[in-house]
Amino acid sequence: MKTLSRILTSLALAATVTVTAVPGTAQAAPDFTQVAGTSCPLPWLETGYGNLSHCTQLSAAGADARAGFGSLETSRFSPTTGWLDVKDTTFRRFQVTGSDGVVGTFKGRGRLNAGGFGDVAYGIQYAYYGFQPIGRWGNYSFASGRFHPSGEWVNASGDI
After folding, report:
1. Which of 1, 5, 6, 9 has minimal Cβ neighbours within 10 Å of its Cβ?
2. Does the keyword Signal apply (predicted)?
């Protein structure tokens, strides 16, 4: 079944088929893990800095959140945004088209108000390159209905 899924995903990438996304589908482990009190999509992305994920950290009160990188090796979180207003804290996993036309699986948490950019969910878009799972950082824009990458594709540490 996984092989068929990989083949279909590879074909979708090659043809850049648009898939209708259903934002907000609730998911639990194993799609996410915790690092220093944050929610991090799995699988990890393999980088020169070790295995990292694009995580979401909720404030103690839960009214604010920020995005950043969580490290498997150090168990530390390094924020990349300031504190943003939280609209919801839903775990998200769905198919989405990137702003560059690539279709893949998005995993992220929450709906955060990013000011002039509108509401976003920070996370990772995953796909397969042949049989190799890959991923890239970025955010899903609720306004555009697209994934906006902020990093290059890198290998993922496991199946999507």
Report:
1. 1
2. yes
Residues contacting 46, CB < 8 A, separation 6+: 154, 155, 156, 157
Identity of residue 6: R
Per-position pLDDT tens, the chain of length 160? 443 344 333 333 333 323 233 344 444 437 999 999 999 999 999 999 999 999 999 999 989 999 999 999 999 999 999 999 999 999 999 999 999 999 999 999 999 999 998 999 999 999 999 999 999 999 999 999 999 999 999 999 999 9
Sketch the domain layout of the chain as residue ranges. 2-155
Burial track 2-27 (b if 16+ CB lie within 10 A, e otherwise)? eeeebeebbebbeeeeeeebebeeee
